[in-house]
Amino acid sequence: MADRGASALSLPDDWPAHPDPILALNRMGSFDWDLDTGLMHMDAQAHDIFDVRPDEYDDHPETLAKRVPPGEARRLDTAVSQALKDGSENYGAYFRIRRRDGSLRWTHTQGYIRRDHTGRPRRIIGIVRDATRELAESDARSDEAAQDEARRQQTSVVELTTAALAHARTVQDVIDVLKDTHGLTHLGATSLVMGLVEAGRIRLVAEGPSDSFVPGTRITRIDEPYPMSEAVRTLSPCFIESPEEFAERYPILWPHITGLNITSAAYLPLIVQARPIGAIGLLYSDRRGFTPEERNILVALGSSIAQSLQRAMFYEQEMDLAQGLQQAMLPRTIPSVPGADVAVRYRAATIGGSVGRDIGGDWYDLIPLPGGRVGAVIGDVQGHDTHAAAVMGQLRIVLRAYAAEGHTPATVMARASVFLHELDTDRSATCLYAEADLSTGVLQMVRAGHIDPLVRHTDGSCRRVTVPGGLPLGLSAEFGRLDYPVSTVELDPGETLLLCTDGLVEQPGADLDDGMRTLTALVATGPDDVRDLADRLIDVAAERGGDDDVALLLLRRRGPDSPRSGRRLQRHVAPGDPAALVDARHMIRTAVGVWGARERADDIELVADELITNALMHTEGSAIVTLRVLTGSERRLRVEVEDSSSALPRRREAGESGVSGRGLLLVELLTDVWGVEARGGGKAVWCEFVVPDHE
Fold this sequence. Notes:
Layout: H1 21-25, E1 28-34, E2 40-42, H2 44-50, H3 70-85, E3 90-98, E4 104-115, E5 121-130, H4 132-165, H5 171-179, E6 191-198, E7 201-206, E8 219-221, H6 227-234, E9 238-240, H7 243-249, H8 254-257, E10 264-272, E11 275-284, H9 292-329, E12 340-347, E13 361-368, E14 373-381, H10 386-404, H11 409-421, E15 429-437, E16 442-448, E17 454-456, E18 462-464, E19 469-470, H12 475-478, E20 487-490, E21 496-500, H13 512-524, H14 530-544, E22 550-557, E23 564-573, H15 578-594, H16 601-618, E24 623-631, E25 636-643, H17 663-670, E26 673-679, E27 682-690
Parallel strand pairs: 16-19
Antiparallel strand pairs: 1-2, 1-5, 3-4, 4-5, 6-7, 6-11, 7-8, 9-10, 10-11, 12-22, 13-14, 14-15, 15-16, 16-20, 17-18, 17-21, 21-22, 23-24, 24-25, 25-27, 26-27
Helix pairs in contact: 4-9, 9-10, 10-11, 15-16, 16-17
């Protein structure tokens, strides 16, 4: 141990022959060590400190070996030898002695080296004293300082975590904050688990280290013998201070987590307005027990987490309602268009954390018309709230009705403007309506304050099509200007028409023309397939962010060498109907054989079964299975599974917990191409397999 430096006393040269009274008053003993003879004289106080009687000590230092343990003796000898060699005038050292009763006591010695005129050490005179109280007080001060620092660090983590939780919008955001660098794990916890109360049960939403999931605990009852259930049931924290206590109190759970080396745990109820909404568990692998201060800190932090979770849960509920309204207003399905490939996409904006503003009035629609014609609509109602979405839904319906009645594009737009004006709302809307005859490629377009469309040519180049327009819908009727000029454009085979809302074009700090040029270049360099191109554009919009939602419609006129629909089979599979599922599987197996795709039969059947199963497991309605052959430069078999859920499937990597979502990895591995298409309030997951042409 390093010498903490007892101050040297001013002693006369003949000390210790005549001991200074200061030594006795401070309960110090003295010694006089003649280095020439090796004899060391000690006074009575020194005898007491070493716990030896005068008759037990013969003035030879070696006699003290029974009182000074070997390790301590070596350390003391090293300090003395170093001082003698380097010319020091004194030295100091702490060491322990073993008393007569076998106990160890800290002692301090201070020696003063006397040398002759040549510098040779001849004599050491010094003092020894009991340092037990001194070191105990010093250690107590160090321990108190360490505890203060630990409390300060814990308080800092609590403050940082609480501040970060204030910005969490969703339940996953809350979990991410707690697992982040300033999260609860910096309070010393190895990992955390979290569960939410739902319908009288606890659903696990976050678990500890990867591969630590305990079977049967994903959803548990509140009355089951688990620590999280106990915290929710009693509304009290559950502190487990040792592995033995864990094993005794929770014998069902403990065998499954022994491999995690858990030494203690704290399970905290998450309570809001005297009602439990869940519980969080902190698992430790390097400590036992909790001090009162640590318990208070964890309980206080549990309250902060509960408030953040409550906000996140309210936000997600409101988001579900808002997005449900948005999806209900969009077309539920997009019809198949003979002679064209169509892709539609919608992306909601996120503005300032306000749920009501996370949806808007952007929409798309595709309207089958008599004579093989089709109407394509893109529009944007002013505002970002549920009212804008409601107006959008009504406007979309009347546009569809007017177009289906056979009115000209200009009349469709004019009547829609009158309808919006008479709707008793302060909202206006921009819109572009294109009526296409795909047999001739003729497009008739009218524009009501909306941005111009783009056309991508077969050589990959892209251009902006200037369409003369009228006032936005609602305003034109108010000002009595219901004229909408009609522009005629010819869409050649293989060319693509792009309609979008300004959320895809506008960028902060750039004007609309710059945005259109950027979009034109992006389309020109994008994939040929309209679905892939739509994905590319919507991904760019998502990366850029922005405060506006995006609607997008792509229509590509097929050329003579483009794939065209061939044979087609379809089945409805209702949930809980095993017979329908068996029929769908039989249909797929039979069609694959009849259509000459036996080489890929196993892959097709496996992927189709995965898509159907996912649709039935994760949605509330039926699944519509469509199987068709596409012919062209290469022959392909296409499988589509449509459901009523707007939630997109999510790919998970192998390191993530659980197994759900990994079917997409199988789909990606076995198919030549696959994707997801929005279908109004639902979606269709599709995949294609290149198969040999045996015909």
